[in-house]
Amino acid sequence: MSPFNILPSSAQKDAVKPFTVHIPDSDLERTKTLLQLSNVADECYENAMPEGRSDLGLRREWLIEAKRVWETEFDWRATEAKINALPNFTAPVPISRSRSNEKINIHFIGIFSQNPAAVPIVFLHGWPGSILEFLPLFRLLLEKYPDLASLPYHLIAPSLPGFTLSDPWPKDQHYGMQDAAQVIDSLLTSVLGFPEYVAQGGDIGSRIGRCLASTYDSCTACLLNFSPLPAPEGFDFSTLSETEKMGVERGKWFMNHGSAYACEQATRPATLGFALSSSPLAILAWVGEKYLEWTDPRSFPLDSGKRYSRKLMEEAIASVAFYWYTKKIHTSFWSYREAFALNGQAPPSSNAQFPVRGPGKKFGFMWFPFEVNPVPKAWIEGYSEIRFWRSHEVGGHFAQLEQPGVVMGDLEDFVGSLRE
């Protein structure tokens, strides 16, 4: 048992329950059977483009191999062991302050220090991510700080509502990112009893992190690695560096060629949810594509003589399996109704709505070149006061998974700067 599972004295100990991930053997066997019975579409131009291209979507050869690996070699129990090696908990959290009697169970990894100066940090994943992407980062931190007294942080990584091990939202109405921010703040302050905390996140987690920092006094700082924003009015593009220009071009590529999934999840989540929930192979195709296109190829180099990275393939399978076994892929789409622009209009919930400014707030950013929309620093400065900035040469959308050592260094420097 991990020595870091001792709840802080401020926590509601009667509400927080230890949790162990364990998928029944019958579910694992059923999944293998479904994979065996699932057909892969025949080869055609779109899924077998010349020269290994994937302009029109996932390549058939990758899906065939990933299906084989999941069916015959992938060890879900090893993934469970990695999760369970850290302290896991669940706690009922009110869905809103106006409906305090209605609660949903939120799962979270909680690594608690006994250092009286430890800083609480909440790590917020996105889609199609999960707590899995933080495991390499947490392992590095615990290797550096192996005992309760030396760890300078409390590390909390919730599964967002509707994702994997947390309850979905109630069925009565729409819930969005501000609702998620309220749940996360309540978990940190009311349930765990921390008066202040720092937020770190990417993808959807970055939007929730911005919302926390701009709305709640308890969130004093946020360090993000994703911040899609439009260029400020009248911006002079000639001032961009060559690296920034490449980032802008990648953002254009994503919007023109890589964002169809987001439109589908925003406009027809029910239909898509039925389709993906019917087959593990369907989720593998839908989500596997994102891991291939959104990660920096330098983070997961291709295997010798292959067109794919086996390590990245296994990471994608683990993520897909997590959604599949917990039956939560269809309840994980809720944020897209707010985050994705439709009909040329601004999205209902955008980063621009949550500026992080003021003497009591600190905003930091980690810039990675293979992010799906790596906007220039000047664009972010138009909406938030940047007090910490790190630009990196390698890394993509899943920065914590791809470059955990780099993220750890930035995180430690950022939290250290809060004392300055």
Tell me the helix content.
Answer: 25-40%
Q: What is the end-to-end distance?
A: 36 Å
User: What is the CA-atom radius of gyration, in angstroms?
Assistant: 21 Å
**Strand order in the sheet with the most strands:** 1-2-3-5-4-6-7-8-9
Pick out the low-confidence regions: none
**Number of DSSP helical runs:** 15
**Secondary-structure element sequence?**
EHHHEEEHEHEHEHHHHHHEHEHH
**Tell me, what's the shape?**
globular
Helices and strands: which structural class? alpha/beta
Q: Average pLDDT across residues?
A: 94
- Compute the number of strand runs: 9
CATH fold-level assignment:
Rossmann fold
CATH architecture: 3-Layer(aba) Sandwich
CATH superfamily: Alpha/Beta hydrolase fold, catalytic domain
CATH top-level class:
Alpha Beta
Number of domains: 1
Question: How does this model look, in words?
Answer:
This protein has 420 residues and is α/β, with parallel strands linked by helices. The protein has one domain (1-420): Alpha/Beta hydrolase fold, catalytic domain (Rossmann fold, 3-Layer(aba) Sandwich). Helices cover 39% and strands 13% of the residues. It is built from 15 helices and nine strands. A nine-stranded mixed beta sheet has the order 1-2-3-5-4-6-7-8-9, sandwiched between helices. Strand 2 and strand 3 (103-111) form a beta hairpin. Helix 10 (280-294) packs across helix 11. The longest helix has 17 residues, at 242-258. The radius of gyration is 21 Å and the shape is globular. The relative contact order is 0.14. The mean pLDDT is 94.
Key terms:
9-stranded mixed β-sheet; 13% strand; Rossmann fold; 9 strands; Hydrolase; 420 residues; alpha/beta; Epox_hydrolase-like; globular; 15 helices; Epoxide_hydrolase
